[in-house]
Specification:
Radius of gyration: 32 Å
Keywords: Cell membrane, Glycoprotein, Membrane, Transmembrane, Transmembrane helix
Number of domains: 3
Protein name: Anoctamin
Number of helices: 24
Domain Anoctamin dimerisation: 110-168
GO molecular function, one term: chloride channel activity
Distance between the termini: 31 Å
Structural class: alpha+beta
Transmembrane segments: 179-205, 259-277, 323-346, 366-385, 416-435, 540-567, 587-611
Length: 748
């Protein structure tokens, strides 16, 4: 025991837990938690229940200070050292780390806050827990205080530190391991985005060299005599293929031969990123003495600490419960897929309205206007359904009744991510693989309700639709969402501060002044960090799953992450109440989510290249149908004639219901994008040959990419040898010490 005038320290070493040093403050008051009650909502019954709860806390071993403000009652809560001694005693027999690696010094505040929060949440008085009392307005809220955060405020939570390295250890000492691992992962992800962003940007810029040189673009720009069928029969307007000259050149910027290599590169990048993160995580956990930490044992210890008479909740599984949850989840997934169909209907109706608009510009740029409008509607659906998905996922978790909070969090993460995945990507899947492919052909178009024709792809190809939708949705999420994420808590904080601190107000109690400052900050909940992780998972999905259609996605993600790191830091340190620290040695279920996204990215990009882009038709024409096929030796470009080959012929006399009358006169035949016979309009032999080629490419691409991922995962070990050797040495020293002690006992 070490003493001083202001404090007494007890340093206790154990084999199990690295944070086992405790401090008893005598001269300086510090508080683990603040409880708040609204006096305006207090009555006699609520006052009695509040006093009963506070009395039980005092019996448990808490020191309580009560301070009354004008409208609220504040309680400062400080746990007695006996609570931490018991906690340490319960965990001392585990083998998380050796005694030689335990840090010296007073108990970290993060440990105190974590334990006190658990006890306050679990304390049950007259059958009521704290959350029940909050619902009935007995208490308003509770929160830990922001204290000694100057270093983080001055060296981390500032916009001018955007390009500086993050102080991960300082973050861990203040917010706990889980928050620190989030920022460590986010920083690592941002750094690893640099090579992906540079590669995507170089690919995009290199395509500019072919902006005017592409043979396909030249043919389209010179196709003044090629008359195209109306995209929608109700438009009654023919158009010339040369009108899409500019869009054809733009499409070639991201729909070219380099797209295949970039998609394979991104598949390997995703694997290398995860493997290198696993190594970084192992180093971090080892440096924090958490490599062998057992989360389940800590939760059991805190349960016993809160109530020594509590009964063990065992693992349970009900096939009936799982079946009900599965059915309800499938119902919601079907609803989310249905929302994609709602988006399709909205785009069809917008097409009809814009085609009859009084504004000529809208009618001229009809397809572009519909694509942009559809992307905006898609973004609104994402915002609304995110709230619905979270509510449903929570209800399903409550119905499942998980044993611990950690188990509940894992189950909730899986459910919520699956719902979010379908919310964000169902519309993109439709655009990539169904748009313009189920519409029939001129004269026999598929119609909704017998009136509205399904939407066609952009005249320059379906890749343009996917590119525009990706750019708008991802751009809005990175700009509008970030602005709302920052401005909303900032404005809320300013309003609350003005309300709680009117001009000229002076407080004589320094504790109350500090408590009011923390009370004025924005509230946090168990989802505060979860929401940040989910936001990054969705962004990672956009960055990898559809990267073949949008090679600039890694660059946008890089810029967004540079802002996101400081935005989250400023929110947590300056605008929000202090998060309750949580212990962790990895990012948990999110790692499995990242691995699943990596596999989906390989499948999706392979199918985009095969079915959405023009890569396979161009490749087959070059080596099978074109002038260079079968080893022909000619001086012409191998893609000469591709445009004419890719367009089918329709005789205008075969129009049944609507005969186009506007635009070009005396048209006997028009062209449309498809591979159909000129006589009966059935699919031609070229269509079936291309379909077989597309399927073969998907199989080859996925096998090559997945084999590359497996080789990369094998080549880069998850755990560095230095970490393995360190753990091995610690185990060896512990066993040798036990053997030495055993030998002494035997000798005696």
């Amino acid at each position: 025991m070490q003493g001083s005038e202001d404090e007494i320290q007890i340093v206790l070493e154990t084999d199990s837990f690295p944070l086992m040093e405790f401090r008893y403050l005598q001269a300086t008051e510090t508080w683990d938690f603040i409880l708040v009650s609204d006096l305006q909502k207090t009555n006699t019954k609520r006052e009695y229940r509040r006093q009963r709860f506070m009395a039980e806390l005092e019996k448990t071993g808490f020191t309580i200070k009560e301070v009354e403000d004008r409208r609220r009652l504040f309680y400062g809560i400080r746990a007695h050292s006996r609570i931490f001694s018991q906690y340490m005693e319960l965990l001392k027999d585990t083998d998380c780390s050796s005694p030689s690696t335990l840090p010296q010094g007073p108990v970290p505040m993060t440990t105190r806050i974590r334990i006190v929060n658990f006890i306050l949440r679990k304390k049950e008085v007259d059958g009521e827990k704290f959350d029940d009392l909050v619902k009935d307005h007995v208490f308003e809220t509770m929160f830990p205080l922001h204290e000694r955060a100057e270093f983080l405020q001055n060296n981390w939570a500032r916009w001018r530190d955007i390009f500086y390295r993050q102080p991960i250890d300082k973050i861990r000492n203040y917010f706990g391991e889980k928050v620190a691992l989030y920022f460590a992962w986010l920083g690592w992800y941002t750094v690893m985005l640099v090579p992906a962003a540079v590669t995507g940007l170089l690919l995009f810029l290199s395509s500019f060299s072919l902006f005017h040189a592409s043979q396909i673009s030249k043919e389209i720009c010179e196709a003044n005599e090629t008359i195209m069928c109306p995209l929608q029969e109700h438009q009654h307007k023919y158009w010339r293929l040369s009108e899409t000259c500019t869009f054809a050149k733009l499409t070639h910027l991201f729909d070219n031969e380099g797209t295949v290599f970039f998609a394979i590169f991104m598949a390997l990048w995703a694997t290398v990123f995860l493997e290198l993160w696993k190594r970084e995580r192992a180093r971090t956990a080892a440096s924090w003495n958490l490599y062998g930490w057992d989360e389940e044992q800590e939760e059991l210890a805190m349960e016993l600490l809160n109530n020594p008479a509590c009964e063990l909740r065992k693992y349970q599984h009900s096939y009936l419960c799982s079946g009900v949850i599965l059915i309800l989840s499938l119902v919601l997934i079907c609803l989310l897929i249905g929302m994609a169909h709602v988006l399709v209907l909205s785009r069809v109706m917008v097409t009809f309205l814009f085609s009859h608009s009084a504004f000529p510009l809208l009618e001229q740029q009809l397809t572009t206007a519909v694509v942009v409008t559809g992307a905006l509607v898609h973004y609104i659906i994402i915002v609304v359904m995110t709230k619905v998905n979270k509510m449903v996922a929570l209800k399903l978790c409550d119905f499942e009744k998980p044993r611990t909070f950690s188990e509940r969090e894992r189950k909730f993460t899986i459910k919520f991510f699956i719902f979010q995945f379908f919310t964000h990507f169902s519309s993109l899947v439709y655009t990539a693989f169904f748009l313009g492919r189920i519409n029939g052909h001129p004269g026999n178009q598929v119609k909704i309700g017998g009136q509205w024709s399904l939407e066609e792809c952009h005249p320059s190809g379906c890749m343009m639709d996917l590119f525009v939708q990706m750019a708008i949705v991802m751009g809005l999420k990175q700009t509008v969402s970030n602005c709302v994420e920052y401005l909303s808590p900032w404005l809320t904080y300013r309003i609350r501060k003005l309300r709680e601190w009117p001009q000229g107000r002076r407080l004589h109690d320094p504790n109350l002044e500090e408590w009011l400052k923390n009370y004025s900050l924005n509230e946090v909940n168990i989802f505060s960090l979860f929401d940040e992780f989910m936001e990054m998972m969705v962004q990672y999905g956009f960055t990898t799953i559809f990267v073949a259609a949008f090679p600039l996605a890694p660059l946008l993600a890089l810029f967004s992450n540079l802002i996101e790191i400081r935005l989250d830091a400023i929110k947590m340190v300056r605008l929000q109440r202090r998060l309750v620290p949580r212990k962790a040695k990895d990012i948990g279920t999110w790692l499995q989510v990242l691995e699943a996204i990596g596999v989906l990215a390989v499948i999706a990009n392979g199918m985009i290249i095969a079915f959405t882009s023009e890569f396979i038709p161009r490749l087959m024409y070059k080596y099978y149908y074109g002038p260079c096929s079968r080893g022909s030796n000619i001086t012409a470009d191998c893609m000469t004639g591709y445009v004419n080959h890719s367009l089918s012929v329709f005789h205008t006399k075969d129009y049944k219901d609507h005969i186009p009358s506007q635009g070009i006169e005396h048209v006997t035949e028009c062209r449309y994008r498809d591979y159909r016979n000129e006589v009966d309009y059935n699919y031609s032999s070229e269509f079936w040959f291309l379909l077989a080629s597309r399927l073969v490419f998907v199989i080859l691409f996925e096998h090559v990419a997945l084999c590359g991922k497996i080789i990369a995962a094998w080549f880069v070990p998850d755990i560095p040898q230095s970490v393995k050797n360190r753990v091995l040495e610690e185990k060896f020293e512990i066993l040798r010490e036990k053997l030495r002690l055993s030998s002494r006992v035997t000798d005696v």
